[in-house]
Design brief:
- InterPro entries: A-D-PHexomutase_a/b/a-I, A-D-PHexomutase_a/b/a-I/II/III, A-D-PHexomutase_a/b/a-II, A-D-PHexomutase_a/b/a-III, A-D-PHexomutase_C, A-D-PHexomutase_C_sf, A-D-PHexomutase_CS, Alpha-D-phosphohexomutase_SF.
- Keywords: Isomerase, Magnesium, Metal-binding, Phosphoprotein.
- This is Phosphoglucosamine mutase.
- Helix 6 (about 160-170) packs across helix 12, helix 9 runs parallel beside helix 10 and helix 14 crosses helix 15 (about 430-450).
- The protein has helices at about 20-30, 50-60, 75-85, 115-130, 150-155, 160-170, 185-190, 220-230, 255-270, 285-290, 305-315, 335-350, 355-360, 380-390, 430-450; strands at about 10, 40-45, 65-70, 90, 100-105, 140-145, 170-175, 195-200, 235, 245, 255, 275-280, 295-300, 315-320, 325, 330-335, 365-370, 395, 400-405, 405-415, 420-425.
- It has 4 domains: about 10-145, Alpha-D-Glucose-1,6-Bisphosphate, subunit A, domain 3 (Alpha-D-Glucose-1,6-Bisphosphate, Chain A, domain 3, 3-Layer(aba) Sandwich); about 150-250, Alpha-D-Glucose-1,6-Bisphosphate, subunit A, domain 3 (Alpha-D-Glucose-1,6-Bisphosphate, Chain A, domain 3, 3-Layer(aba) Sandwich); about 255-335 and about 350-360, Alpha-D-Glucose-1,6-Bisphosphate, Chain A, domain 3 (3-Layer(aba) Sandwich); about 365-450, TATA-Binding Protein.
- The radius of gyration is 22 Å and the shape is globular.
- The protein contains 15 helices and 21 strands.
- The strands form 4 sheets. The chain has a 6-stranded mixed beta sheet, sandwiched between helices. Strands 8-7-9-10-11 form a 5-stranded mixed beta sheet, with helices on both faces.
- The chain is of the alpha/beta class and about 450 residues long.
- It starts with 8 loop residues before the first strand and ends with a helix.
- About 40% of the residues lie in helices and about 25% in strands.
Length: about 450
């Protein structure tokens, strides 16, 4: 049995995320840690955040570990504070999921997301209920700490050329999606000398502005305002701000693949080295990295997997197609605000507009859709689909990736939702649409055939 998905423990509050369940999660993590360890806890802006946090904290304290509560903060800020001040960290967040969801993300002492083998140790304790409940004298200490977001902002500023960015006096429209970036990104931009125009930058866990996933259909206000004020760019975060999606100066939504390739090109051009990314990433990345003397290393989908592989191979950069980028000089986790600062630095140093740099990248078309599939069917569906597609050129590193001439399709189960995701890329848009539809039908037929 599994407790953790691809990005921590997630569920609907009041259904599978109940106070009893959450306190037992805290007890399991507490028993996993040595008594007396310091656990950093922070949360995003969801309405249920305090309930979820306090339930988990009760289990931690009962296990004899100490809690440092840093309050509302983006997930990368929690990871940064954990790296500097804690033995372990917990982010109370469900990232881009709707407001009725919440979750518990476990963070190792070095600020990275906990590797799967360590999650399994916690799961073993959880399912066996092998708690360590201490006596009253040894209950953990609880303290609140301020300043985590400021420390995080200073950390980002230390890794970019602040004066070069300030001299450009960029006009930036920022959409915080009423999430945790409300407390960091607008202030980071001010420190970088930008004129900041804010959308949905007040904290509200019901996400009234739009859904917290930064998809193009959710960012129409951002796209409109960028054009109306002639901004240099627009930036949008997801709910916990570990990702960044951009709108260029021409008001175009820029897919995460393109900004990933843009940043990778500049870093490899200056440093050389390896770039780590999942199998779902565009061929644009491989093309620009190889052209500049670098190497691409592929992994299964999942930011923790990318981060661990980066450490293993000594990569200079890493990231995913969804706008999550990892800068090892800062920390080994996705970081939306660091991504924004780096994009501004690239623009400042090159003297070019974002649209110019994007247009200079190789052109491919990408598409991503999802198909409903209950969690209990996922394994059988994957095995059946492998058999159905065995005569095609496939790669099974993570799900099933089908290769063709100038195109690929990736079919893989989500680790956080009851769905399969289908990713696709091709040089021709009509061919891509046709391929997506073809493999969607194949997937739906397979799901329907599994009882």
């Amino acid at each position: 049995m599994r407790l953790f998905g691809t990005n921590g423990i997630r569920g609907k509050v009041g259904e599978n995320l109940t106070p009893d369940f959450l306190s037992e999660v805290g007890l399991a993590i507490g028993a996993y840690l040595p008594q007396g360890n310091n656990v950093v806890v922070g949360m995003d802006t969801r309405v249920s955040g305090e309930m979820v946090k306090n339930a988990v904290v009760s289990g931690l304290l009962a296990s004899g570990v100490n809690v440092i509560d840093i309050g509302l903060a983006p997930t990368p800020a929690i990871q940064f504070y954990t790296k500097n001040h804690g033995d372990f960290g917990i982010a109370i967040t469900a990232s881009h999921n709707p407001p009725e969801f919440n979750g518990v993300k476990a963070i190792a002492g070095d600020g990275t997301e906990l590797p799967r083998e360590e999650e399994e140790r916690i799961e073993k304790i959880f399912f066996s209920k092998n708690w360590r409940i201490v006596n009253w004298r040894d209950v953990g200490k609880y303290q609140k700490k301020e300043g985590a977001n400021e420390e995080y902002i200073k950390g980002i500023l230390s890794h970019v050329d602040v004066e070069k960015i300030r001299n450009r006096k960029f006009v930036v429209v920022v959409d915080c999606a009423n999430g945790a970036s409300c407390f960091t990104t607008p202030y980071l931009l001010e420190r970088l000398g930008c004129r900041v125009i804010s959308l949905n930058c007040h904290s509200d866990g019901t996400f009234p502005g739009h859904e917290s996933e930064p998809k193009e259909e959710n960012l129409q206000d951002l796209i409109s305002v960028v054009g109306d004020v002639s901004a240099d760019l627009g930036i949008a975060h997801d709910g916990d701000a570990d990702r960044a999606i951009f709108v260029d100066d021409r008001g175009r939504f820029i897919s995460g693949d393109k900004t990933l390739a843009l940043v990778a090109r500049e870093i490899v051009k200056n440093k050389g080295g390896k770039v780590v990314t999942p199998v779902s990433t565009s061929l644009i990345l491989e093309k620009v990295v190889k052209e500049n003397g670098g190497e691409v290393v592929y992994t299964k989908v999942g930011a923790p997997i990318v981060a661990r592989k980066m450490i293993e191979v000594g990569a200079v950069f890493g990231g995913e197609e969804n706008g999550g980028m990892i800068f090892p000089e800062h920390q080994y986790c996705r970081d939306g605000a660091m991504t924004l600062a780096k994009i501004l630095e690239i623009m400042a140093k090159s003297g070019k507009k974002l649209s110019e740099m994007i247009d200079a990248l190789p052109r491919y078309y990408q598409k991503k859709i999802s198909v409903s599939c209950s969690d209990d069917k996922k394994v059988k569906v994957l095995e059946s689909l492998k058999e159905k597609l065995k005569d095609e050129k496939i790669d099974t590193l993570d799900g099933i990736k089908i290769w063709g001439e100038n195109w690929w399709i990736l079919i893989r189960p989500s680790g956080t939702e009851p769905i399969y995701r289908i990713y696709g890329e091709a040089r021709d848009k009509e061919i891509l649409d046709s391929l997506i539809e073809k493999y969607k039908r194949a997937l739906e037929e397979t799901i329907a055939s599994i009882s």
